[in-house]
Amino acid sequence: MAVKRIEAEPSTVVVELDHAALVIIDMQRDFLESGGFGETLGNNVALLKAAVAPLQTMLAAARKSGMLIIHTREGHRPDLSDAPKHKVERGEPSLRIGQPGPMGRILVRGEPGHDIIPELYPAPGEPVIDKPGKGAFYQTDLELMLKNREIDTLLVCGVTTEVCVNTTVREANDRGFRCVVLSDCCASYFPEFHEAGLAMIKAQGGIFGWVTPSTKVLAALDSH
Ligand code: C5J
């Protein structure tokens, strides 16, 4: 069984690859491309592009290592029966969840905007978790899938750092999983929230987990 030492903050993490998974959060067109959910909220979606190239490299390395890779997507059923009223009605977006936009209905499953960006598209066999909330564990079978595969460590990345990545890491931490967050493979519409989101995870001796750039994980995967 391959055991790797990943240099991270606040400390080095020793990972058994058979018990680790790369979890890629919500790299969807709705968040990263023009005309999607993120832009309807008034965000500059170009800011999220920073995570794409490092994530492509990380994804390729994870595939080569044989590690489990899981993708998530935030979105709702076409009838919006799983979308909380207050989520749909809050704020003053240019388009609300469920309304038609240039990439189909905003944040609705099956629409082009809901899908994962082509650069990071899941390979056949890689599980995709459709989640109605910000956290990947809420109302999904992610925990069951991880437990069935005896996964204990999650390499977490995706968008946005302080919303769905942070929520998922907190959910995972409470369920007993170790989370290593890949800093350059995450991004936010708010650079200061990206930094704060990472700082909150690794503070207090790693209260929610560890943080490291993907280069440290790549180096660990290459080591013997
Ligand atoms: C947001 C997410 N930001 N994937 N979702 O609403 O972080």
Main attributes of the structure:
binds dicarbonimidic diamide; Rossmann fold; alpha/beta; 224 residues; two-stranded antiparallel sheet; 10 strands; six-stranded parallel beta sheet; globular
Task: Describe this structure in a few short sentences.
The protein is of the alpha/beta class.
Explained architecture:
The structure is a single chain. Helix content is 33%, strand content 22%. The chain is α/β, with parallel strands linked by helices and 224 residues long. The longest helix is centred in the C-terminal third of the chain and has 16 residues, at 191-206. It is globular and about 50 Å long. The mean pLDDT is 98. Bound molecules: dicarbonimidic diamide. Dicarbonimidic diamide binds next to helix 6. The site of dicarbonimidic diamide has 8 residues, from helix 6.
CATH C-level class = Alpha Beta
Overall, the morphology is globular
> How big is the Rg?
17 Å
Percent helix: 25-40%
Beta-strand content bin:
15-25%
The succession of helices and strands, N to C, reads EEEHHHEHEEEHEHEHEH
Looking at the overall shape, the CATH architecture is: 3-Layer(aba) Sandwich
- DSSP, total strands: 10
User: Could you say what the CATH topology is called?
Assistant: Rossmann fold
Uncertain residue segments:
none
For the termini, the CA-CA separation is 12 Å
Biggest sheet features: 6 strands, parallel
Bound molecules: dicarbonimidic diamide
Say which CATH homologous superfamily is assigned: Isochorismatase-like
How many domains in all? 1
Arithmetic mean of pLDDT: 98
Give the helix/strand class. Answer: alpha/beta
